[in-house]
Amino acid sequence: MPKNKPTAGPIRSRSSDGAVDVSFGISVVGKGPTKVFKLEYTGANDGDEGNITSFRLDSIELGTDADGNVTDAPVVVQVEGAKHDGSNLKGNAAKAFGSFGIALAEHGQVSPEGSHGFPDGLTVVSREKWQDQFYSDAKAKEADITDDTLSRRFRRAIGELVKSQQIGTLGQWLWLDSRTTLDMSGH
Questions:
Q1: 3-state DSSP call for residue 6?
Q2: Count of domains observed in the chain
Q3: Structural domain contains residue 86
Q4: To the nearest whole number, what is the mean pLDDT of the chain?
Q5: Total-model pTM
Q6: What gap in Å lies between CA 57 and CA 106, rounded to an integer?
Q7: Whose C-alpha in 43, 96, 111, 156 is 20 to 30 A from the C-alpha of 12?
Q8: Is 99 in the same domain as 150?
Q9: Residues of 77-87 as b/e, b for ≥16 C-beta within 10 angstroms?
């Protein structure tokens, strides 16, 4: 497959007055052969925002060139919604996701059937238990870090994880999004 990386960013259609009518974004989940791209509306004047489609790039062989080298080209293959596994996360979001997995495994509880706003039978963990785990993990690596710094990092990480649909949240409770997998083998 060609090594060219696709560019991501908003694609905008502009009217004569310069206002954005619609914008799109592409996000990437996973790495290597499991990499999935998600195309979504990120803003629309007269429509809904949200997912449009998910796809991956496969390679097809076109033939051979004059030197006998195989030539190929990328093709877009539509896939079901991308599975999140945390592999595309960086920095504090990745650290927070790891802490989330530990907190969920150690303190998670099944949401009561029929609970308003929660999917039935889902394992949830409280924000407090997750935050305690995040602080503990961070302080094990940076003993002098302040709670204020950790608080800012944790809040930003939650925002990123919710926005990227790695986790779901309602009030003080959090859970893995249905498209997310968690590999605890490294802990």
A1: coil
A2: 2
A3: no
A4: 76
A5: 0.53
A6: 38
A7: 156
A8: yes
A9: eeeeebbbbbe
